[in-house]
Amino acid sequence: MQRTLFFLFLVLFTHLSQSQEYTSDSVFIRTLFDESLTQGKAYEDLRSLCKDIGARLSGSAEAAMAVEWSKQKMESYGFDRVYLQKVMVPHWERGTKEAGWFKGNDQQLHKIPLLALGGSIGTNGLIEGELVLFHSREELLAAKRKDIEGKIVFVNQPMDSKLITTFNAYGGCYPIRGYSAIDASKLGAKAVIIRSLSLSNHPHPHTGTMQYEEGVEKIPAAAISTQDADMLAEFILDQKKTIFLLDMNCQQLEDKLSYNVIGELQGITSPEQIITFGGHLDSWDVGEGAHDDGAGVIHSLESLRLLKELDYRPQHTLRVVFFMNEENGNMGGKTYAKQAKLNGEQHIAAVESDRGGFSPRGFSCDGTADQLEMIKGFKDLLLPYELHKFEKGYGGVDIGPLKDEFEGIPLFGFVPDSQRYFDFHHNENDVFENVNKRELELGAASMAAFIFLLDKSL
Amino acid sequence: MQRTLFFLFLVLFTHLSQSQEYTSDSVFIRTLFDESLTQGKAYEDLRSLCKDIGARLSGSAEAAMAVEWSKQKMESYGFDRVYLQKVMVPHWERGTKEAGWFKGNDQQLHKIPLLALGGSIGTNGLIEGELVLFHSREELLAAKRKDIEGKIVFVNQPMDSKLITTFNAYGGCYPIRGYSAIDASKLGAKAVIIRSLSLSNHPHPHTGTMQYEEGVEKIPAAAISTQDADMLAEFILDQKKTIFLLDMNCQQLEDKLSYNVIGELQGITSPEQIITFGGHLDSWDVGEGAHDDGAGVIHSLESLRLLKELDYRPQHTLRVVFFMNEENGNMGGKTYAKQAKLNGEQHIAAVESDRGGFSPRGFSCDGTADQLEMIKGFKDLLLPYELHKFEKGYGGVDIGPLKDEFEGIPLFGFVPDSQRYFDFHHNENDVFENVNKRELELGAASMAAFIFLLDKSL
Question: Which end of chain A is more exposed for a tag (fewer CB within 10 A), N or C?
Fold first, then answer.
């Protein structure tokens, strides 16, 4: 009887203490959101990063300024430790603004705005060639050399607007930007023009990384806007022959020394166990890298600031990382993971925000069923803030290399609403003014709450 | 044994046919979204409503044009029946643009942009008075007559940014706009100025409806922007006395004849049973009424167009209604419900979209537990489109009066993401350019899918 009573007491006590814990977690998360929405620094910090620094391509003066800005900012928030980690990064420069024209049967020139793809070689003066239109990468791959040799290839494949998560539509067209210079060069083309990877019809060409292949001649590659791509594709159909003219003097320079910027709150019970979270500090050189990935580094910075501000004492060491060079090389992510292994660090989880500063929807998990179950367990606490997606999915490019060095480490990605992302992505509209204050603040509080729950659950 | 086999067969058959139905529903909903996202008319229709018609306050020339535009549009989509329903609406006009100034100790004048609240009387020439600051409606209600008499009251209560659903924050401040002219007049004030109901800090004053009370002297009421409200509140603290000067010649004119615009697809099995869905065609007279409620009427129009386009044959009669005069009187909603009762119509459900053209989140239901359970049953089919909220909540202002005439009728509200709504609401930023194409199209498809499921479930 006594034993029964004892067990009854134990069950009751466990239940009570669990429910008390749930209540106190829920109160703390509420406080994180309140603080972010009323006293948050996220919006002003993003403004400063976008306006006082600007776009910050790896190797640029702005990227160097961004490193200084970030270190100062982290120091000003009084984190336990703030330091730089050396990273050698590729250094590509756009040079003088690109220029492009086309002309049809009547030989009249029409100017067309374009952006060299990141990593492209220049044209070494003005080049011209007959334009050959392809509607997809498959069509280009199936083409005959005689139809392409000496010409300029134009790949006009739109992203699939039917896909609800826009990143899936991006994934579908990503190989066009990545490999068209290789595909077209193998068939003898002298340059390649692609339709920008965007879901909306607007006049701003985008840029982004592209590849060359050892042994395949490098040819220049550029993107035109979705609006111009539609116009040009229609124009070509009406002409016997369309000539495209192109001048770009972008170039790849020597690799350059840069840095990841790192800040920490020391863990109380297991300081040797590290939870990493961050975004990438570098951006492309157009716009201001506001959503990509100003929002992500600011989400991460604000998370640590909020947790510190509210006197949270973490179990594990919480480490915010502003990664350098995600856009064209991921040297920051690779260096971070390698260095962590070399230092004998223990990494138990990582979280990335690199999908823009939009209204929170949830978090993805690349790990095991158990790890996924763990974050599904956070849902009840985060649903009041409209986070409903806790799904199997990608962590992020920057934290990706940790998986190779630390077996079984779960990687998590912050998932905001994706509908507007590809209106701004890698084009001149990715500016501070296109980030909404509340959406950014809700994202920062969501990251903070998620990191808090991770720290308690691991 | 045979009986057991029979029941087993019955269970299996029911299960199979249910799962087949689920599959075919799911395929049809997918088609609705595909059609909306690739061949949708919503975005172009909204552009035309905003740019070819513009803002459309009840009684204005634009409102009359909007009625014509809507009827033509519905006819062009070939609905079974398109007609107008007479509605007498209030007719308030802003007149010459309002002007306001303030001055402090040094008597230097500072101009301040303001908007008369909808329904306010004019000032009958330039008036001036000492400005008295209150931080909340409660503070004003507790004030003494001697501190207010002959002065101008300024209520500077910000919306509560901590509330995740921004409509709750709006609800908290709504009485300030609605009743401050009454509250202040009872204490002898000569005019009232309020802080605009917006969650962001920007320079655009908003407008919106306000009340007078029988037997209480009418005084002019206007709003200044959130940015200016902060500035002015700070200014007042530094001065011995702040004088506010105000000139408005807005006026209430004779009621005017206007119309609800109605389109129908006839039901096959129960044509006498009607499902109403819509938004309001009128808007305030600043901006273009793009989110409020251009998006809502376009969601509704596009829903019926999509269902017709995809050859859906409804069980019940599906009726889209563009209500007139939601903003300042709701005469469209009241007339519609009364007329429905007079005509002996059978109304079985109604759906409204009046929360902007943002990413879909779900639907609210004002009805019984069973009615709420019914829409929770739609969740599995709509979650792939990121609709996750199926909650007890408000239907909408326009459809509200149906509840009085048809006992137990369930009213549903479309729930998009609410974070940006009060950046645009009733101010000059509520323009077409601030509506995102995909978000609008996803909203329209969500409405169509919801109406389809309602039609099948009722």
Answer: N
Interchain CB distance below 8 Å, B37 and A417: no
**What is the distance between the alpha carbons of residues B290 and A20, in angstroms, rounded to a whole number?**
46
Cβ neighbors of B435 (< 8 A, separation 6 or more) are B43, B46, B290, B291, B294, B295, B357
Q: What residue ranges of chain A are covered by domains with CATH 3.50.30.30?
A: 96-252
CA dist A169 and A159 (Å) reads 5
Tell me which chain A residue has its CA closest to the CA of residue B35.
A162
Q: What is residue B23's predicted lDDT score, i.e. its pLDDT?
A: 81
b/e per residue, A249-285, with b = 16+ CB within 10 A? Answer: bbebeeebebbbbbbbbebeeebebbbbbbbbbbbbb
* Residue range(s) occupied by CATH 3.40.630.10 in chain B: 31-90+254-457
pLDDT tens for each residue of A357-369: 999 999 999 999 9
Tell me, what's the pLDDT at A35? Answer: 98
- Give tens-digit pLDDT for A9-62: 666 666 667 777 878 999 999 999 999 999 999 999 999 999 999 999 999 999
CATH fold label, A96-252: Glucose Oxidase; domain 1 (3.50.30)
Q: Considering CB atoms only, which of A361, A388, A436 is closest to B420?
A: A436
User: Measured between alpha carbons, how far is B450 from A60 in angstroms, rounded to an integer?
Assistant: 51
Q: Which fold is adopted by the domain B97-251?
A: Glucose Oxidase; domain 1 (3.50.30)
ipTM for the whole complex = 0.94
pLDDT above 60 (res B188): yes
Nearest chain A residue to B434, by CA: A434
Please tell me the class of the A32-88+255-457 domain. alpha beta
Chain B residues touching residue A162 (CB < 8 angstroms): 33-34, 37-38
- Transcribe A276-293 into DSSP letters: EEEEES---SSTT-IIII
How confident is the model over B274-299, as a mean pLDDT?
Answer: 98
- pLDDT one-digit tens code per residue, B408-430: 999 999 999 999 999 999 999 99
**Which of the residues of A are catalytic?**
326
Q: Please tell me if residue B433 touches chain A, with a CB cutoff of 8 Å.
A: no
- Domain at B31-90+254-457: CATH code: 3.40.630.10
Q: Are A26 and A424 in contact (CB under 8 A)?
A: no
Side-by-side strand order, sheet with A114-116 = A110-111, A99-103, A243-247, A127-134, A152-155, A191-195, A221-224, A114-116
CA of B231, closest CA in chain A: separation in Å? 18
Residues carrying CATH 3.50.30.30, chain B: 97-251
**One-letter amino acid of A113:** P
User: Quick check: helix, strand or coil at residue A406?
Assistant: coil
B162 vs A contacts (CB less than 8 Å):
33-34, 37-38
* Residues of A whose CB is below 8 A from B439: 419-420
